[in-house]
Amino acid sequence: MDALTANGTASLQTSVSSVAAGKRKFVDERRDQPFDKRLRFSVRQTESAYRYRDVVVRKQEGFTHILLSTKSSENNSLNPEVMKEVQSALGTAAADDSKLVLLSAVGSVFCCGLDFIYFIRRLTDDRKRESTRMAEAIRTFVNTFIQFKKPIIVAVNGPAIGLGASILPLCDVVWANEKAWFQTPYTTFGQSPDGCSTVTFPRIMGGASVSGGRATGIWWRCPGGWQRGGAGPAAEPPSPQVLEESKALVRCSMRAELEQANERECEALRKVWGSAQGMDSMLRYLQHKIDEF
Fold it and tell me: What is the pLDDT of residues 202-222, one digit of tens each?
């Protein structure tokens, strides 16, 4: 599925409308494709499209479509401003008549994780205060996904890196097109895990695989598919009401565990960002990316 190109948007929305009516189809293609950062498409401004600075929200029949389209960061990366807008859009969808949420992105990149340029600029000013503020922003952002009651479907149309990948298991369905790939190189860019990945990744991929991935910074295309909350084989789904009730039952037992994991991870991030070593690691990572591109 060409998830979010200019010609593919209508077909994707038709598919999600079917989900809202009780029908859904998984598509998971994993052929190698070049990474084109220049690919963009314009989002038509209509009465059903609400523009924030960094996201676009479209109210469709039966669901809300939230697209990452960041202006305050590159490659749909996440800083506190972007995260607040996503939270606001999710809050509106939680309170209206939407049966579910579709989360996707404008362009050829789904989400490049945390906006390290934003973080470094502010950590330079007041490391202790800003590290606490940024860790709290991530904690609140991740808790929004943990606590969201309606189903969240994600269409991944390109790279999902760091927090952009680790939030996916907190959602309910993940569509991945042939250009999608996933990477969590935490040690490479000098930070500890986030997005409850210390709990969700071992359950999805196995403890040994996750430990190796964190140590070496490998990337993957979900070989074999994610069996829970991820890209997998086609299956006939239950109705949205059943999905929501099932989600509530599952999260009832998992919610406290996920929130506690989120708390621990954000405290670890605060300590890393508050240290000179953590700053140096982020600077080295950014310099490597500049040299690479």
Answer: 888 765 445 444 433 444 454
